[in-house]
């Protein structure tokens, strides 16, 4: 690459990074501004203030925020785990076995994935109230599965297809049952795929707002995105901007940590050396 | 160790295409059997049916006297080396080799002993803690073999194991496999499309064409007494030359002059107007270099040489000839089926490397008429095949095998004893 090209690429990258990260920087900056400082007409706070963080962790908003944080973590982790497990079996069957209705399953999954959430929220709200799932953890986990399963099946079946058939056949000839071959050979090889899928599924569940706000009413099950919407200012004349910003920053942290943690796992190419390449 | 018997094995795919069609084959205990044929002949499918990775449509598969048609691969106790090795990339070489033993729930010290033994034989000792991704092609190949030999399997199955290696390594591994098989004396089925491997490794070779067995015989018999045009054209490199011929009593009129054949052989040719003579390149010679007393055993002819190839130890000359359309079509079909690209009607003849025959000139050649074969161009059948002589060749090969196995096993046990003695004295 010539120097000119390098410079152009560098400039383009900088523009994109600025475009993507500026709102985040803004939120971080907002979260450190005291309420009186919010409209100071400048990007940086006049004085660094922890007031907003105090508000959501120990102050009046903590009743709303802390249970929501707990709910969000619990619900999303459970939904992700179930979705990954189910998707693993489904994807394995789709990638390996020949059965009637295979394309039907895949296309149905796609249809479910693109189905507008808002149109089923109202019927679901009624149904959940009647059968007692309204405002409970399972009441959110089940809709979250419908969001995460389709995408999980699609990504994982792509990963399973990458694993050479011979791996499994070799294991069978070596004396493994189908289950042993799956557990000892296929799953370790599919691990990067499973981690990638898990992260995607977790994000989807973590970011949901519509189900969260519609299917909960108390701190028993309300997740963070819904709780943020219910923040109020200290008085009715005050916007809760600072508190929301602080909470948004806090909520972003687990996502960043998750990606950093599994980044190395996601690197594909674990199957290098399995077969002659 | 066990014998493998196949009775009328058929493999039909969903669309009714028979990949393997009515194959019956007996593989003796300890025998090295090669399945060979051009691509798409069903050899790999047959191997996968033996190991159980492919369902058998009809027929019986009997391993060690037990019908295994409905057994899962793991219950057949066979070991297999895949074409692309199929090593487990997330395990070390040690764990790869140990995998079958771990599945059999063998105690750790026994696993260690066996893996060490196998890695000694295959010279993998220094690589046991590495991952397959970091190994060279030849090393991966040896790991795959280690995984096969580590367990006391009934038979070894190889699916084109050397096709991914470069030429030099392939030669090395070929002798390695041969030695290993003799040493362990274990029944082996080996699939290849490479006829060098077929000829050098096999006790017997099974030539397949479109899912059907053409001939099962020792390499020598295949070479000297092929059963039909297909086998004759497939075995041998450069391939056998096929010339059009019309019979006249004991003589065959060919583009390269008249060839006289023995009366006993000529009598089998009755009732055909057009024949095909099969002559191997080495049955030709530069006439000026043939000793006087040999000359009457063959015939001489003059022809223009198109191209010569001098290889140091040998020399080939290419001689074009005219052929009737029926023969040309037949030859074209044959070469297409054998995955060969040569479509021109030309004979490849092997002449002495000191010969001064030059390209573009006319020269005199001598051809040994004693070993030529005559084929029916329509059915491809070899009309002059001597079945008894062929059977004798295969019988001799079987005898050789038994002797070789005994010798290499007694040598191996002697090695072990001396090894034990040194260990004891140390």
TrEMBL record, chain A:
Q: Name one Pfam family in it.
A: BPD_transp_1
Span-the-membrane segments of this chain are 7-28, 72-92, 104-128, 140-160, 185-206, 243-262
- Major localisation: membrane
Q: Which UniProt keywords apply?
A: Cell membrane, Membrane, Transmembrane, Transmembrane helix, Transport
Subcellular location field: Cell membrane
**Signal sequence region:** none
Annotated Gene Ontology cellular component terms: plasma membrane
All copies of domain ABC transmembrane type-1, residue ranges:
69-262
One GO biological process term is: transmembrane transport
Indicate how the chain sits in the lipid bilayer.
Multi-pass membrane protein
Q: Which family does it belong to?
A: Belongs to the binding-protein-dependent transport system permease family.
Its protein name is: Carbohydrate ABC transporter membrane protein 2, CUT1 family
Automatic annotation (TrEMBL), chain B:
Taxonomically, the superkingdom here is Bacteria
Asked if Nucleotide-binding is a keyword of the record, the answer is yes
Cellular component aspect of the GO annotation: ATP-binding cassette (ABC) transporter complex, substrate-binding subunit-containing
Q: Name one GO molecular function term.
A: ABC-type transporter activity
- Stored SUPFAM superfamilies: MOP-like (SSF50331), P-loop containing nucleoside triphosphate hydrolases (SSF52540)
User: What's any GO biological process attached to this entry?
Assistant: carbohydrate transport
Q: Where is this region: Disordered?
A: 397-426
ABC transporter domain location is: 4-235
- Pfam families reported in the protein's UniProt record: ABC_tran (PF00005), OB_MalK (PF17912)
Keywords carried by this UniProt record: ATP-binding, Cell membrane, Membrane, Nucleotide-binding, Translocase, Transport
User: CDD domains, per this entry?
Assistant: ABC_MalK_N (cd03301)
Q: What is this protein called?
A: Carbohydrate ABC transporter ATP-binding protein, CUT1 family
């Amino acid at each position: 690459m010539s120097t000119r090209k390098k410079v152009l690429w560098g400039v383009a990258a900088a523009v994109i990074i600025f475009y993507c990260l500026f709102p985040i920087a803004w939120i971080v900056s907002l979260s450190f501004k005291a309420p009186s400082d919010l409209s100071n007409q400048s990007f940086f706070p006049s004085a660094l203030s922890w007031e907003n963080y105090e508000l959501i962790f120990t102050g009046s908003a903590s009743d709303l925020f802390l249970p929501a944080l707990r709910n969000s973590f619990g619900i999303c982790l459970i939904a992700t785990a179930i979705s990954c497990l189910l998707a693993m079996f489904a994807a394995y069957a789709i990638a390996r076995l020949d059965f009637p209705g295979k394309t039907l399953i895949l296309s149905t999954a796609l249809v479910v994935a693109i189905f507008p959430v808002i149109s089923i929220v109202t019927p679901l709200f009624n149904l959940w109230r009647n059968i007692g799932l309204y405002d409970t953890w399972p009441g959110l986990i089940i809709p979250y599965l419908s969001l995460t399963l389709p995408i999980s099946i699609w990504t994982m079946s792509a990963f399973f297809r990458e694993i050479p058939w011979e791996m499994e056949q070799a294991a069978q000839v070596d004396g493994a049952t189908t289950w042993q071959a799956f557990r000892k050979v296929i799953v370790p090889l599919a691990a990067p795929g499973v981690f990638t899928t898990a992260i995607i599924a977790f994000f989807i569940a973590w970011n949901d707002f519509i189900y969260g706000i519609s299917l909960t009413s108390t701190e028993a099950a309300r997740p963070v995105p819904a709780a943020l919407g219910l923040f109020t200012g200290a008085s009715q004349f005050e916007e809760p901007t600072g508190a929301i910003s602080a909470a948004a920053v806090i909520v972003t942290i687990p996502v960043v940590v998750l990606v950093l943690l599994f980044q190395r796992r996601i690197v594909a190419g674990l199957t290098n050396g399995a077969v002659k390449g | 160790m066990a014998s493998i018997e196949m009775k009328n094995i058929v493999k039909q795919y969903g669309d009714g295409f028979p990949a393997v069609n009515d194959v019956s084959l007996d593989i003796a205990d300890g025998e090295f059997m090669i399945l060979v044929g051009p691509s798409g002949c069903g050899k790999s499918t047959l191997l996968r049916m033996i190991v159980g990775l492919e369902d058998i449509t009809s027929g019986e598969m009997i391993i060690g006297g037990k019908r295994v048609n409905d057994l899962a691969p793991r219950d057949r106790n066979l070991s297999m080396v895949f074409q692309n090795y199929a090593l487990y990339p997330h395990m070390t070489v040690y764990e790869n080799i140990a995998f079958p033993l771990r599945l059999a729930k063998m105690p750790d010290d026994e696993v260690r002993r066996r893996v060490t033994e196998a890695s000694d034989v295959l010279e993998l000792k220094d690589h046991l803690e590495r991952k397959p991704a970091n190994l060279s092609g030849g090393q991966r190949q040896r790991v795959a073999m280690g995984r096969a030999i580590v367990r006391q399997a009934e038979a070894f199955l190889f699916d084109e194991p050397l096709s991914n290696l470069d030429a030099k390594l392939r030669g090395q591994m070929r002798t390695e496999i041969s030695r290993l098989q003799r040493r362990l004396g274990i029944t082996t089925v080996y699939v290849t499309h490479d006829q060098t491997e077929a000829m050098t490794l096999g006790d017997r070779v099974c030539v397949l064409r479109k899912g059907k067995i053409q001939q099962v015989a020792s390499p020598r018999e295949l070479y000297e007494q092929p059963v039909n045009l297909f086998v004759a054209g497939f075995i041998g490199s450069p391939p056998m030359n096929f010339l059009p011929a019309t019979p006249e009593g004991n003589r065959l009129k060919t583009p390269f002059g008249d060839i006289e054949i023995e009366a006993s052989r000529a009598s089998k040719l009755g009732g055909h107007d057009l024949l095909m003579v099969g002559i191997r390149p080495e049955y030709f010679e530069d006439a000026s270099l043939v000793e006087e007393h040999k000359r009457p055993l063959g015939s001489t002819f003059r022809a223009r040489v198109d191209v010569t190839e001098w290889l140091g130890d040998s020399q080939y000359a290419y001689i074009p000839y005219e052929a009737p359309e029926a023969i040309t079509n037949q030859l074209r079909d044959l070469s297409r089926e054998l995955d060969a690209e040569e479509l021109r009607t030309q004979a490849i003849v092997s002449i002495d490397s000191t010969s001064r025959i030059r390209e573009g000139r006319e020269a005199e050649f001598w051809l040994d008429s004693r070993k030529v074969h005559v084929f029916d161009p329509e059915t491809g059948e070899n009309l002059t095949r001597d079945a008894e002589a062929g059977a004798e060749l295969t019988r001799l090969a079987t005898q050789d095998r038994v002797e070789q196995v005994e010798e290499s096993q007694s040598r191996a046990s002697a090695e072990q004893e001396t090894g034990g003695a040194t260990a004891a004295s140390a």
